[in-house]
Amino acid sequence: MSVAHSDEPLIEVEDLRTYFHSEAGIAKAVDGISFAVRRKKTLGVVGESGCGKSVTARSIMRLIRPPGKIESGSIRYRRGEETLELAGLDPKGRTLREIRGAEIAMIFQEPMTSLNPVFTIGEQITEVIRLHLGAGRGEARRRAIDMLNAVAIPSPHQRIDDYPHQLSGGMRQRAMIAMALSCHPSLLIADEPTTALDVTIQAQVIRLMRDLQREFEAAIIFITHDLGVVAGIADEVMVMYLGEIVERAPVRDLFRDPKHPYTQGLMTSIPSLNGARKQRLPVIEGNVPSPFDLPRGCRFHPRCAHASELCRERAPLLLEAAPEHHVACHLQDPELA
User: Fold this and answer.
1) DSSP class of residue 186?
2) What is the pLDDT of residue 111?
3) How would you class 277 by CB atoms within 10 Å of its CB: exposed for 0-12, middle for 13-18, buried for 19 or more?
């Protein structure tokens, strides 16, 4: 795998729209989002369940299955000196098979449904290593053991021959992480990779990802609900709501000065050790609306305490409210202020 040393983005998504068609209507899971990730950088993607984070990741991997479909948009991946348009490739074609797992790898949210129950953990990891790196059986097994050890699985020489059902949920998650990192991908997409892990193993996994970045100039898209993890690993944060980006900013700017009411709500809902013991934790009222029945205007307005008649009628644009800080909110639009 060749590595380019230009400052161009490794992956660049432009106006991506991924919809799901059903008898109930069209669910606009991802609706016109644009972003880029450079080498050695981490993009944190946050938002409530149902906001389109995982669908965005699967769209990049071209793993959207019917009734889902990428309606339009561009997914450009810089592979050495060439740029590939992933949205235009055959999902079952040779080029994408070569890229998946080797150059772009994904850690899925639920390992029990991603690991094959009839093969051992070792067989599944070594298959990836042999397929993409051309290693022999012995070398692939040694590399798989090293990766299991790197993600803190105890007794990796024994665990490599275990089946998925013989491992705990946390150990299955670590086995998935070991598989994703085994070929040192250029882009790692991590969908809630540390949810089932305790804080000690979380720290080890995050440190392993950072080491991968430094050594191989990798980029990471890190999807999570945990804003604490985002603060510790991300360079830039993208906040999603109902298939759209509502705020995007460098991590320090976002935590220091969140501008969108939704982002502010996420921040204030984090428990604090300095808060009053009997004080109720602030919450964002209401639930994420159905993607089949999207609100008119700003999609967050039914839950926003600052909503005006303009918010109910017109959707806001994603504008630069501060240097490198983009917000989709009428309150931040200088022409409407």
Assistant:
1) S
2) 74
3) exposed
